[in-house]
Amino acid sequence: MTKNPPRIILINPPLVKPCEPPGGPARLAGALEAEGIEPVLIDANLEGIVYLLNRAKEPPSAWGKRAFKNRLENLRNLKDPRTYRSIDRYSRAVSDLNRALADAGGGRTNLSLTDYHDPALSPLKSEDLLKAAASPEDSPFFPYFSARLRGLVKQEGIAFAGFSLNYLSQALTAFAMIGFLKGEFPSLTIIAGGGLVTSWMRRLDLKGLFPGLLDHCVAGPGEEALLLLLGRKPAGGPGYLPSYRRLPLESYLSAGFVLPFNTSRGCPYGRCTFCPETAEGNRYSRIDPKTALADISLLAAGLRPSLIHFTDCALSEATLEEIIRRPPGAPWYGFVRVSERMTDRKFLRKLKDSGAVMLKIGIESGSQEVLDSLKKGFRVEAASLMLKGMKEAGLAAYVYLLFGTPAESKKEARETVEFVSRHGDCIDFISAAIFNLPLNSPAAGKLPREAFYEGDLSLYSDFRHPSGWGRRQVRAFLASEFRREPAIRSILGRQPPFFTSNHAPFFVLNR
User: Fold this and answer.
1) pLDDT of residue 251
2) How many C-alpha atoms does 439 have within 13 Å on its Cβ side?
3) Residue 483 Rama label (left phi>0; alpha psi -120 to 50; beta)
4) 156, 371, 379, 441: most buried by Cβ count inside 10 Å?
């Protein structure tokens, strides 16, 4: 007689942007289903946010009253494509909904649609994560997850609980949920994986830090490890098709269902000096482009998404070629690298014809000296040609900039301002970030470091900049020069608040 497979629940904990289903748990669910295991899949992030909004109490302030009154209408507005025709209408809906959620959180913690912060506890300190696990009732999400998880574990006979942990904003709530489960069901086996867990495991023994809480920790892709833990031998081959059928696809806060899909893991370039992928030694692996496009086309035909989000660090040129040959069947967007191929205007027009709506590009700097120091592998002139070609092809450009790198001074930062201003008509959206030094970076040892994010789980460090171009100076420059430049100010005015690049394609689609 065949032994019944163990029951497992896969959990995406709060808090991350609730605009699309979690891709990692969906891939795990697909692998389990293919090997005869039916998981319970819970997006506790979306459920927890909606739970708090539905059960909120009216606050005393005028803005709070308005946000409370309109909260359910604004939930509907963020699913309505018409909202994305006006940045002002969208911004009001998002800001009011964010205020309603903050009030619903109770005030002790800082809760938003895209982040969770507790002034008393840091997700960068293992001792604080242990405190969150020891007092789960202090979490603003406790009324939701205590009832939800207790009922599921009892009803479904759950023996394993897997947590997908990708962002620091999830850590405190995840550990509160783990602490609750361990207190109620001591025999339950807890498995932790995801991008954040992978980063921690590159540096630390997590089970040594969290005795009695985490039974298994998985670094990198989790399908094979999870199947082995559940007594199944992975079939191997090109991989498993993600399964989204257990998720509430109509409930996410976007103008239609967004289908996340990754065709690779790691970065196809992998030589940038301070890239976390390089620092952690994550090896690049890619699904064969023909297989990847067959998979995404099959998913798109069945799920009929409004938008496909390729979540790769960067789509390889081979995959882009296959997308052109076999369009996935829905509008799409994702990260690409600046390269000579991407300066070919015919190639860019073919990407547009394949359904591409927006391309995200890490240009980082307008200074060739800075780009060379970062080993970005492209010329400023190539970035210029690419942006102009995208404009001609009708492709929106979401450009990422990075200020405060070790080779940059105010002179090079001004070169970036000049580059962006000169290409203002080709750039639709901008994300400007301040450089963080990855602790594992090989180059980190060459720079004098200082305390930054204090905690044994920190992944980044501050450093004494060779030119005195520190974080304080960079912040002042961004406020006084970068954001005040007319062309840049115009671009920044189009940025969707809170949801940024996740919602930007909808403004392009609904122009």
Assistant:
1) 96
2) 17
3) alpha
4) 371
Q: Can you read off the two tokens belonging to residue 129?
A: 């994560």
- 3-state SS string for 288-355: CHHHHHHHHHHHHHHHCCCEEEECCCCCCHHHHHHHHHCCCCCCEEEEECCCCHHHCHHHHHHHHHCC
CB 34 within 8 A of CB 233: no
Contacts of 458 (CB under 8 A, 6+ apart): 124, 439, 452
Q: Closest by alpha carbon to 161, among 145, 149, 170?
A: 149
> What residue type is 252 in one-letter code?
Y
**CA neighbor of 416 nearest in space, from 370, 372, 484:** 370
Element (H, E) at 72: helix 62-77
Question: Cα dist. 416→297, 351, 478 in Å?
Answer: 39, 27, 11
CA-derived radius of gyration, the chain: 23
Question: Which of 420, 432, 417 has its CA nearest to residue 475?
Answer: 432
d(CA 375, CA 38): 45
pLDDT at site 272: 84
Beta strands at 332-336 and 356-364: parallel, antiparallel or unpaired? parallel
pLDDT digits (tens, 9 = 90+) for 99-141: 999 999 887 788 999 999 999 999 999 999 999 999 999 999 9
Reference 19, options 118, 137, 113, 135; nearest CA is 113
Taking only the tens place, the pLDDT of each residue in 175-190 is 999 999 999 999 999 9
CA distances from 196 to 20, 102, 131, 409 (A): 19, 25, 19, 31
Q: Which residue has the tokens 């904003």?
A: 169
Q: Please, which pLDDT band fits residue 236 given cuts at 50, 70 and 90? A: low
Residue 211's Cβ-count burial label (10 Å; 0-12, 13-18, 19+) is: exposed
485 exposure class (CB count in 10 Å sphere: 0-12, 13-18, 19+): middle
What DSSP string runs through 245-261? TTS-TTSSSSSS-EEEE
**pLDDT digits over 200-230, tens only?**
998 888 888 998 899 999 998 899 999 999 9
Q: Which residue has the tokens 């970005």?
A: 376
In terms of Cα–Cα distance, which of 195, 171, 190 is closest to 123? 171
Q: Give tens-digit pLDDT for 368-403.
A: 999 999 999 999 999 999 999 999 999 999 999 999
Round to whole Å and give the CA distance between 429 and 493.
9
